């Protein structure tokens, strides 16, 4: 299994490419969802890394995928410009999954 990056930032893509992770850069919700759908069908990809800004373009879709599908694993990563609210995101996912506010 391999990693794949979907980023809104060229610098993030280049940095991860240096460690052998392929990826692509998109900026619009429609483009992001098209790439995501395509890469989710690729059985060789086990983990899809997605920058925070892209997650914010389609939080409903990402939540649905995380709750209903085991593979590939979708992982939110902050880019060099942003601050990360991953803890809040995880709390929201757990709250939606079990129906209890944390």
UniProtKB/TrEMBL annotation:
> Which InterPro entries does this UniProt record tie to the protein?
ATPase_V1-cplx_f_g_su (IPR008218), ATPase_V1_fsu_sf (IPR036906)
This protein's record includes keyword Lipid metabolism: no
Which superkingdom is the protein from? Bacteria
UniProt keyword annotations, A-Z: Ion transport, Transport
UniProt cross-references to Gene3D superfamilies, sorted A to Z? ATPase, V1 complex, subunit F
Q: Which GO terms describe its molecular function?
A: proton-transporting ATPase activity, rotational mechanism
Protein's name in the database: ATP synthase subunit F
Q: Which organism is it from?
A: Faecalibacillus faecis
């Amino acid at each position: 299994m391999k990693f794949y990056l979907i980023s809104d930032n060229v610098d993030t893509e280049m940095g991860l490419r240096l460690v052998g992770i392929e990826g692509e850069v998109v900026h619009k919700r429609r483009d992001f969802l098209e790439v995501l759908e395509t890469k989710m069908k690729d059985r060789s990809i086990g983990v899809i890394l997605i920058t925070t800004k892209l997650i914010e373009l389609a939080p409903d879709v990402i939540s649905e995928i995380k709750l209903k599908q085991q593979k590939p694993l979708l992982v939110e990563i902050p880019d060099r410009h942003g601050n990360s609210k991953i803890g809040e995101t995880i709390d929201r996912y757990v709250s939606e999954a079990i129906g209890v506010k944390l």
